[in-house]
Specification:
Number of strands: 13
Order of helices and strands: EEEEHEHEEEHHEHEEEE
Helix content: 25-40%
Strand order of the largest sheet: 1-2-3-8-12-9-10
Structural class: alpha+beta
């Protein structure tokens, strides 16, 4: 189900209108990840991203992924309202056609010292590369099944946090990351970074559900954040990016 986004020099895994499930640079290109030293509010962030991408001699359609931080978890209706606002800029940049969105994304909520408004933490874009090593970004995913239905209907072990439920939530999310990797023909073995987002202790399940599956090949970065929707408890994303900078 992978689709091409030729004007951005990458392909993507179609998902929902607000984001794709992942982006992979086309042959002859690589993904560069840029992290802001400090969180940047959405409007200012889009302006700085545009300046950086264009300063690198690339079109705005090269924008392929981003990582957001929000003040607190949204209600389902609030999350949709935010996403409708977020995609307006993507439409202006020629990325969102009203239905399909190629840009991968994570959006999580710091439990301590959160931003006062939705902000950018990092972004990624494609650029020409001499090397042939692949690069990709897999979007953030939590313990919610795909398909129709509200979040309460789709969340794995909804509002349960006993040890068995917690293990099932993490197992589901790890499996979903592996499924998305497989869409591009990769496994955990190709990743250069894996990130987890939760305010719960992941150590009781880390060995069996992550380490033994190869998900910690390059270690694990744990962000003390909540997923973006109320009642989600665990989120992950991963990537293979060989060029990363901080600005």
């Amino acid at each position: 189900m992978v689709s091409e986004f030729a004007s951005g020099n990458y392909r993507f895994i179609p998902a929902v209108f607000q984001y794709s499930s992942g982006a992979q640079a086309s042959t002859g290109y690589e993904i560069e990840r840029v992290r802001f030293d400090r969180l940047v509010p959405l409007a200012e962030g889009f302006a700085r991203i545009a300046a950086h991408i264009q300063g690198a001699g690339r079109p705005l359609t090269a924008f392929c992924a981003c990582e957001l931080r929000s003040p607190a978890a949204f209600t389902e209706d609030g999350f949709r309202a935010f996403n409708l606002h977020y995609v307006k800029t993507l439409a202006e940049w020629g990325l969102f056609d009203g239905t399909t969105n190629p840009v991968a994304r994570s959006n999580v909520c710091p439990e301590i010292d959160p931003p006062s408004e939705p902000s950018f933490y990092a972004f990624s874009f494609t650029r020409p590369a001499a090397r042939t090593s692949p690069s990709f970004v897999i979007a953030g995913g939590a313990e919610a099944r795909g398909g129709a239905g509200s979040y309460p209907e789709r969340i794995v072990r909804y509002r349960e946090l006993n040890p068995d439920a917690w293990r099932e939530k993490v197992r589901f999310t790890v499996s979903e990351m592996a499924r998305r990797l497989a869409e591009f023909g990769f496994t955990w073995a190709e990743t250069t970074s894996v990130q987890a987002y939760t305010v719960h202790d992941i150590h009781p399940v880390m060995v069996d559900e992550l380490v033994r599956h190869g998900a910690t090949r390059s270690g694990l970065t744990w962000h003390f954040c909540r997923p973006p929707v109320v009642d989600l408890e665990y989120e992950m994303d991963c990537r293979r990016v060989l060029r990363e900078v901080v600005i």
